[in-house]
Amino acid sequence: MYRILGIDLAAKDRNPTGICYYNKGLHFLIVYRDEEIFRVIENLLPEIAVIDAPLSLEKVPFRDSERELLKRGFRPMPLTIKSIRELSERAIRIKEKIEKEYGIKVLETFPRAVERILGFNFHMFKEYFRSKHIYDAWLCYLTGLFYKIGKYEDLKGIVLPKIK
Questions:
Q1: Residue ranges of the chain with per-residue pLDDT less than 50
Q2: Cα radius of gyration (the chain)
Q3: Which of 34, 84, 29 is nearest to 55 (CA)?
Q4: CA dihedral over 107, 112, 115, 119, signed as positive or negative
Q5: Residue-wise burial string across 78-109, b where 16 or more C-beta atoms lie within 10 A, e elsewhere
Q6: 46 Cβ neighbours under 8 A, 6+ residues apart
Q7: Which end of the chain has fewer CB atoms surrounding its CB within 10 Å, N or C?
Q8: What is the pLDDT of residue 111?
Q9: Would you say 84 and 10 are in contact if contact means Cβ atoms under 8 Å apart?
Q10: Looking at residue 164, what is its pLDDT?
């Protein structure tokens, strides 16, 4: 089985970050601090990490990748919102460390698009997931699976499953 880490990252480390990975079964965690994320990575040594957060910043509200999402009817949050900018800044710091120190590829995804592409919604699975953070981490994990088997689409930096 592929070693994939799905991360639903919170903008601030006082808020929960959801983690999903496979190791003889699916595992789900809630963590808070960056060090906890890195500890999971050190123990798991995934091939890829898929994060629900902007992994680049621009001064405009939407990057080219988000404009592609908007064209398809999805509703990403603009980078000009303070909390989204903070999320992106944290995600970029984490991505850089994961790539430099662990040599692991990091991908960006957008769980609201993933769930629509796959025909899912949280209410279908709420008895299995104790929070939306875990559910979104699972969607990130699933995106990583689609990526590993070559069934994905790259929207100028945002990776999504491709089922057709």
A1: none
A2: 15
A3: 84
A4: negative
A5: ebeeeebeebbebbbebbebbeeeeebebbbb
A6: 3, 4, 5, 21, 104
A7: C
A8: 97
A9: no
A10: 78
Instruction: Please check whether the domain covering 4-161 is classified as CATH 2.40.50.
Output: no
Nearest to 80 by CA among 104, 97, 63: 63
DSSP 67-119: HHHHHTT--PPPTTSHHHHHHHHHHHHHHHHHHHHH--EEEE--HHHHHHHHT
Structure tokens at 34: 């960056």
pLDDT of residue 105: 98
CA dihedral in degrees (3, 18, 135, 113; nearest 10)?
Answer: -80
Q: Nearest CA to 54 among 23, 76, 22?
A: 76
3-class secondary structure, 138: helix
Q: What is the 3-state secondary structure (H, E, C) of 27-80?
A: EEEEECCHHHHHHHHHHHCCCEEEECCCCCCCCCCCCHHHHHHHHCCCCCCCCC
Q: Residue 1, class by beta-carbon neighbours within 10 Å (0-12 exposed, 13-18 middle, 19+ buried)?
A: exposed
If 0-12 CB within 10 Å is exposed, 13-18 middle and 19+ buried, where does residue 14 land?
exposed
